[in-house]
Amino acid sequence: xxETIVAHIYKQHKMMVKNASELAWxxxxxxxxxxxxxxxxxxxxxxxxxxxxxxxxxxxxIVWNFYDLTQRSITxxxxxxxxxxxxxxxMVNYSGEKEFIIGNSFYGLxxxxxxxxxxxxxGIFAFGFNIFSAGIILVLSLVPVFLFAISIGLLIxxxxxxxxxxxxxxIWSISGVIMIFSGVFYPTDILxxxxxxxxxxxxxxxxxxxxxxxxxxxxxxxxxxxxxxxVISLFYLIICIFIFSKAVKRSKTTGKLAQY
Length: 260
What we know:
Layout: H1 2-17, H2 20-27, H3 29-46, H4 53-83, H5 87-92, H6 97-127, H7 136-163, H8 170-182, H9 195-199, H10 203-214, H11 222-254
């Protein structure tokens, strides 16, 4: 089992280091988001907005990048094989669903935390914001985000393997939707109507609130927020693992898997 898990990690690593455009997910896109949004928040601050606007927004951006990279890992673990028409080989050998999930999730966790460290360092020099001062709260608050990103990634994988390539676009679009309702750029209490309730069905909202509370932006209890996010994300994960398992079995039964 361990050998197979390592194989999934190694495959993702080799696909990334051999493709310059894939390296952009780690060394370009996160910094574009950090700097472009950070500079915009800086402009708002200079124009008379609250000086803490920059820090408030940067917390959300860092969590959003972490989510995006983790989800990308679990989905690209499948799309790589779909693009090379080799998914059927990986799904019919002794490498099971468990190894697929653990291997690709672990790679996503490593790359996501690596990017947090990189953009955290840039944040210190560019904006004077030290995300690392949150200490263990930073690490713990990202755990629900990690579990939730894996859950959504498995859901996307399930749709791709049973319904085809058309659902692949969710890899890049759904993170933007989650960003809207998680309060990356603003407090969720300004969302109109019942959308605020929807925000608190997402673990990412709790993680962002916990981190912002660590920096004094809110009075929300940190431990309670992290725990709530963890419980909700664990619920999503259990449901989505079940859906993914059923999707793999269905694709084998219907012959859909043979197309990939």
